[in-house]
Write a structure and sequence with these properties.
The protein is of the alpha/beta class. The chain has 13 helices and 17 strands. It has two domains: 175 residues, Aspartate Aminotransferase, domain 1 (Alpha-Beta Complex); 270 residues, 3-Layer(aba) Sandwich (Aspartate Aminotransferase, domain 2), CATH 3.40.640. The structure holds pyridoxal-5'-phosphate.
Length: 463
């Protein structure tokens, strides 16, 4: 796989990229952050936007003052910016601000469960036996726990399988849609995996889901910050019904998540959280809910978080999502090529060049556990990576081909050692020099494993 060196320098866009970090030796070096799938540092423009707006910060929606009016306008304008960024439909879709992607998915799960309950109780009332079956949500075997666990209690969840490389099996999607025809109400799938970086063909999945009368939810947490994304017009059967993502993974780490979905869906039913701002009128006996999105944003909204998100989106648009995608792809190419040249490194199906992926690469080093390697990288070279199972245990078990008896053992001793991996995940500010340095350090650790493992043991003995 070839790679081209990108000439763009995005480092100046991001706060803290040159911050020195402390090594075990006591020396301070410029840190390398390869853990951007977990969270990203803020854009300079995000901090500037917060500072510029701070003098006008006030309560929104119900305040009568000048600043309250400006605050309310900014907050409502932000919905348009967000919707435009992902190609949502202004007439049909609603943007709901929540805490993070996890809260957004839980919100959809809660509301859909109410509809499922209503459907069944109507069936019982009308003695319609067809209405008694539990609704099915089709998730996949490559989801983050946040797009798996929220569905489990209220629906029957079926998982679309992945192949030995961890890629979604499209045929299994089609088979399951056919097998559970009429019962599948939602297909929920990640836009890009937080473990392998694989990008799913969400518009083709949408086409199939719609063909069978189901809606589609795309978990955009790992895709929206790294590549262009388009929900497509409602009239198209490739349209994406629901999208969720987190601002803290797109350079605006101030506690906002986004849920976009059809307004109609949220008009119906009760919100998961109720309280201030969610109602039009209340007596002790009765509540008349407000219209979406207000009904679903209980309490005082996170205005500063939304200001930050807007600034982040404007910065991403200014740089250009296509350029970001190209730059991160080039880094990924360089990394994979370099990792292949290190004997001690175990990669997972990276020869699949036709598989679209964002800048996420999982691997292991022979003879060194993922936990040891991550700590050695931090302590000896100031390089931050993630290690473990990345909140995607079932997927990692599949990728590592962990046999069922070993999985059972983990379940019996959940605090014990779990098979896992090390993950590199790029942000737009990472550069080719950092990747080269990382490869050099890995090469050195691989060559002198015993020395580094001894150091690792020393950290823990002296701790
Ligand atoms: C694919 C994916 N979905 C969902 C989430 C959850 O995001 P948050 O913790 O911001 O709710 C993550 C977080 O890493 C993720 O990678």
């Amino acid at each position: 796989m070839g790679f081209t060196i990108s000439k763009m320098d995005y480092r100046s866009y991001v706060v803290g990229v040159d911050t020195p970090v402390l090594l075990r030796s006591g020396e301070k070096v410029r840190g390398i952050n390869f853990d951007n799938a977990a969270t990203t540092p803020p854009f300079v423009k995000v901090l500037e936007a917060i500072n510029e707006f701070a003098p006008y910060y006030s309560s929104i929606h119900r305040g009568g003052g000048y600043k309250a009016k400006i605050s309310s306008e900014k907050y409502e304008e932000a919905r348009k910016t967000v919707l435009g960024f992902v190609g949502g439909d202004e007439k049909r879709d609603v943007v709901i601000f929540v805490q993070n992607a996890t809260a957004a998915i839980n919100k959809v799960a809660h509301r859909l469960a109410q509809q499922a309950e209503e459907y069944i109780s109507n069936g019982l009332k009308n003695n319609n036996s067809k209405n008694k079956e539990k609704w099915i949500v089709l998730s996949t075997s490559m989801e983050h726990h946040s797009n798996d666990l929220p569905w489990r209690n209220n629906y029957e969840v079926k998982y679309i399988e992945v192949d030995e490389c961890g890629r979604l099996k499209f045929d299994d999607l089609k088979n399951k849609l056919e097998k559970y025809k009429g019962l599948v109400k939602l297909v929920t799938v990640t836009g890009a995996s937080n473990v392998t970086g694989y990008i799913n063909p969400v518009h083709s999945i949408a086409e199939w889901a719609h063909k069978y009368g189901a809606k589609i939810l795309v978990d955009g947490s790992q895709l929206i910050p790294h590549a262009p994304f388009d929900m497509k017009p409602y009239a198209s059967n490739k349209h994406i019904d629901f999208v969720v993502f987190s601002a803290h993974k797109m350079y605006a780490p101030f506690g906002v998540g986004v849920l976009i979905g059809p307004k109609d869906f949220f008009v119906h039913g009760d919100p998961d959280y109720s309280g201030g701002g969610t109602v039009k009128a209340v007596t002790h006996e009765q509540v008349i809910w407000n219209d979406p999105p207000f009904k679903d944003e209980a309490g005082t909204p996170n205005l500063m978080g939304v200001i930050a998100l807007t600034a982040a989106i404007n910065t991403l648009k200014q740089i250009g999502m296509k350029r970001i995608e190209k730059h991160e792809k080039a880094l990924t190419g360089q990394l994979i090529q370099g990792l292949k040249n290190i004997d001690s490194i175990e990669l997972y199906c990276t020869e699949e060049e036709n598989q679209e992926r964002v800048g996420i690469v999982p691997f292991n080093m022979k003879g060194v556990s993922y936990k040891q390697l991550a700590e050695i990288l931090a302590q000896e070279a100031g390089i931050a990576v993630r290690s473990g199972c990345f909140c995607a245990h079932p997927y990692v078990q599949r990728l590592l081909k962990v046999p069922p008896d070993k999985v059972n053992k983990v379940m019996q001793n959940p605090d014990g050692f779990k098979p896992g991996m090390v993950r590199v995940s790029f942000g737009l500010y990472n550069d080719h020099g950092e990747v080269a340095r990382f490869l050099e350090v890995l090469q050195e650790i691989g060559k002198h494993r015993w020395h580094y493992l001894k150091l690792y043991n020393n950290y823990h003995q002296s701790a």
